[in-house]
Amino acid sequence: MEVRDLIQRGNTLQAKFGVTNYNTPFASKISSECIISGTAVFQVRVIAAQVNNGHTNIYNNLIFVKFMKLHQDDDLNYIIKFSSDELGVINKTFISDDGTWHLVHENKRQQYKFDVTVHMDIVPSTTSFAMLHEDTELTDFELRGEDGSIRMHRAVLASASPVLRRMLGGTWREAAEGHVDVPGTSKATLQNLKDYIYLHTLPDVGLEQLLLLASYYMMQDLEQKCVDKLVSILTAENACDLIEFAAKHKVTRLLLAILECVQSGAVKVNEMRDHFLHGK
């Protein structure tokens, strides 16, 4: 099985596979492990069989995929949507904790090629606080930024972050006063945080500051989603700035995701070099 044009950008992976049965009665081939966003492993397995009915060779091919969480001790759950134009598969969904090979296609060709697009996402919480997003009557806690504050619900905040849960459930001064100061954070970033907690939405701008807030409050799902979105818009022009940002703030998850993207060829090193040295 030949694998080529493998590109991994954030939480999306693309590749092309080629299979030829060289008149072998039975063969099983497994692709190398493809790491998606540093958090999950995707693999393809092809089983090829050939029999002769006395007149001609008959080929039977089965294509399987497997998707597994890379770090079993993290608290996140992931899904992938698997698509292939050549195989006629669109957004077939698999869960990372499944751990089995899933049959996605079968055919009777001796030689064939197929494309693969895999998009990974974190499984959203089944608990939704969307109906409370615009509520002001029941809000009982305040996040204060440098230029303004955001009102929220203690219970909702506690459910979103283990750091905030300890703060709100203990004897901390902030719990008694009903507010917490968030130094170096703007009101806009705090609003983005609220929008994600209540609505599971992400902004188009300001992702870097939201990522820092997610890391500080130990919100792994938000941190991963920010990383995925930043890498999905990675270019030669902004790659160096994002690498510098990740290194400065020790955001290892973002730094590794960028390096994986560059290694896969989604962003070219020579283009980064030209932009960094000459501003082209």
From TrEMBL:
Residues 139-198 form the BTB domain. This is BTB domain-containing protein. InterPro entries: BTB/POZ_dom, SKP1/BTB/POZ_sf. SMART domains: BTB (SM00225). PROSITE patterns: BTB.
